[in-house]
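Sequence in, structure out.
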Amino acid sequence: MDERLARFIGDHPDAAMITLRPDGSAHAARIEVALVEGRLWSSGAQALTRTGNLRRDPRGTLFVFAPPPDPRWAGLATTVRLLDDPDAPDLHVRLMRARHGDAAPAGMLLAHDDAVGGDRPWLPDEYRTHVQAERRLIYDFTVTRAYGNY
């Protein structure tokens, strides 16, 4: 991934993730992405349709976009590795710190909470427990081709 694409992704984490259903048709989901130590990551869960699709076929496409009226976007052909080992909660803490930086109060991290319908501050251990209970995992994307207007 070149520096220009990395900068675009860092500034614009909103994306659509496209995976392939068993019949070959596309399945789309809205996600957020972040660069973690040079790797492109997103959060997912065991029970999601896209996770099942990726277990069968690891190919996925990302459409990363800037909010309107900014017309810039990037299309990314990827292969996806699922990081669902016992260290997944620690990986999620790293992902949220990379994604939100210092936006949370000191000693906390900012991450999504379905119960409140958005991001909120979490104590790191509280978030690790949440990730385990939700059976969350990390999507680790390897970009094989990038294109677009970014």
